[in-house]
Design goal:
The chain is an alpha+beta fold. 30% of the residues lie in helices and 14% in strands. α1 crosses α2. The radius of gyration is 13 Å and the shape is globular.
């Protein structure tokens, strides 16, 4: 990736409805998803056709003790970070409902 490209870092905790805002949730609960996994986040990025990279070894600093690891780095998104998070959460909800 070029160094001038716009990067957005997305942690699963940003869209986790089980976490309070002080532990990293960025969306209101009605838009959030219950306990999203890194794999679900990756599948949502693939479905949306985003250019992204997966970092499996990182831990989110506010919830490092929960044991969940990983983040997604999205490049060149035309959406704002908040709109991107809402879109990812809605896509994960769609993927969950279609797999049942």
């Amino acid at each position: 990736m070029s160094e001038n490209s716009k990067k957005v870092v997305v942690w699963p905790q940003y869209i986790d409805s089980t976490l309070p805002r002080r532990l990293g949730r960025r969306l209101p609960k009605e838009y959030s998803v219950s306990r999203p996994t890194l794999d679900e986040l990756v599948n949502a990025c693939k479905k949306l056709g985003l250019e992204f990279e997966v970092d499996n070894d990182s831990k989110y600093c506010r919830t490092w003790y929960l044991g969940s690891t990983g983040r997604v780095i999205i490049y060149n998104s035309s959406l704002s970070k908040l709109k991107l998070l809402k879109t990812l959460a809605m896509t994960i909800k769609e993927l969950r409902s279609s797999s049942k």
